[in-house]
Write a structure and sequence with these properties.
Radius of gyration: 15 Å
Structural class: alpha+beta
Strand order of the largest sheet: 1-2
Oligomer: single chain
Strand content: 25-35%
Shape: globular
Largest sheet: 2 strands, antiparallel
Helix content: 10-25%
Length: 70
Amino acid sequence: MNNRKMKEMNHECDACFNKAVDVRTEIFSYPSENENNAIRKIILYRCEQHLDTNVHEMRKLASIKRESKK
């Protein structure tokens, strides 16, 4: 049994303004001009609503969120 306590998260979900309940490091690939497939690592904070959202959709939602903050 693991007796370690989870740290309190003080982050927002990357896709919306709700409190994050999960943090994950995701690896994904995308087409690049310099290489056949570029590989990137991204750290995503997710709320309960976005726990099952895929990486590409989370990136789209995060860019929309950034634009709305401007």
